[in-house]
Request: fold
Amino acid sequence: MKILVAIKRVVDHNVRIRVRPDGTGVETSGVRMSMNPFCKHAVEAAVQLSEAGQGDEIVIVSIGPKAANDVILTALAMGAHRGILIETDAELETLAIAKLLAKVVAEESPDLVLLGKQAVDDDSNHVGQMLAALTNRPQATFASVIKLVGQSLEVTREVDSGTETVSIPLPAIVTADLRLNTPRNAALPMVMKARSKPLAVRPAAEFGVGLAPRLIIEKISPPAERMAGKTVGSTSELAAYIASEISQMEAL
Amino acid sequence: MSTLIIADHDLGVLSPATARVIHAVAELGPIEVLVLGQDTTAVAAEAAKLAGVTKVIVAHSAGTADGDVQVIETLAPRYTYLVQSAGSVGKDRMPRLAARLDLMPVTDIVGILGPTRFTRPIYAGNALQTVTDNQPQHILTIRASAFRAAAGGNDSPIEAIDVPVISAAKLIAQHRTESNTPDLATAQIVVGGGVALGYSENFKLIEQLAKKLGAAIGATRAAVDAGYAPNDWQVGQTGKIIAPDLYIAIGISGALQHLAGIQGAKKIVAINSDPEAPLVKLADVALIGDLFEIIPQLIAELEKAGVNR
Reply:
């Protein structure tokens, strides 16, 4: 089974972001960047399938500026075989990303495409589903278990009511949730080895896909600040507060 | 200018999220509701009662993304807006639908500023994006907790349609978390537990308090990862987003990803042993101490105060 994993470079999820005062966006210069956490779970899933003898070649693709090479190298150090950077300095919408990935799927013909369920910068949670639509493949999003059964995958999905298991025939698209696995930290020899693995850099324009945005982002603003609170000294004070909140709530 | 809302439902019951989505988009035009699934008679009847609904359409579906999207796509040309709540079904189906129709969706909407202007959170709610969507059709998902519910008392017609569907995916098993507490995403009061609680047995304490308050139960990612609480209790950037009138956070330090899920709460109470915990700083009211002592006392005090919901 050939596996393609699409990954994104984002502001590190532990960084407390700052909205630019002029409303044009979130400050990303001089901020620590890393692989989107959900993408790490997707890479780990691919490597584990490969280690179990169920996956062959693992190809990593990322779309972004030159610096996104970093996250591809991280994925190669985790055990992937080859990387593709589709280079662009533009902030592309998820639909454009999915169209570029569909071109890569057409070139590479992977049996399985793995992605993170969402990127923690724009929190969209679109690309896997869109790629499944554009390539006319079945999808299993928010995966917490992936099992290969013959020519199909049985995927357990985390949903609002608990979990559900779907069977999807290959070729298919799966997006990773947090409990799918524990991503490994690559050992130093693997990090060194990653540098010698093939990494192709191709300009986004080469793919002949319309990349112009459909939506107009008017502004980015910070959320409303909460009023400062207080500390109470006893459980009875707290109970009184809760009781009064409830009676106000019920009065409405 | 009409709107199709895809209903959320489970176990033959309409989700409270759908009434909120209907209310959220009521000003955008007349609303029809699509109920997809099997044995949905009761769900359709519930949807038909909601104010603002002009028709309920019922279609058979096997509960898979590719199948559901085929049905919605067949109906899509009739509508300007195609809308679902940003729950696990809407998140799964609507981006697939959007790509099928070559449209860029606007998802997780928390504010509707006009027919084509919306606000949505990014970076775990630490920033808000104001977006204009000038495409000919609009695919939207709505964060239900950010809106009030539509009233009842309506009696709109129900129409069954038959759309042949070929789904490659098959739903083979469902595992539900058994619970008689209210729906977490739309509950008025939520009691949340963190990893500080320890074993899942200790989550029973939270359940007792929740029962007393008629509250839903939430948990942090760490508590779910540790196996103390089921995955559908997770509140945060990647779990459920809640906006209760009152959130009681117990033993939760307040990781950025958890805070993202509770920013819509009107009042926040924190019970924690650490006075420096981010959630204690954020809370309207905090009590510092040992939660294993505090919770039983609190239940007793609430009992004394005559609180029983």
Remarks:
- Residues 3-207 of chain A form a domain with the Rossmann fold fold (CATH 3.40.50.620).
- Chain A is about 30% helix and 30% strand.
- The first strand of chain A starts at residue 3 and ends at 7.
- The helical segments of chain A are 37-51, 69-78, 94-108, 127-134, 188-194, 235-251.
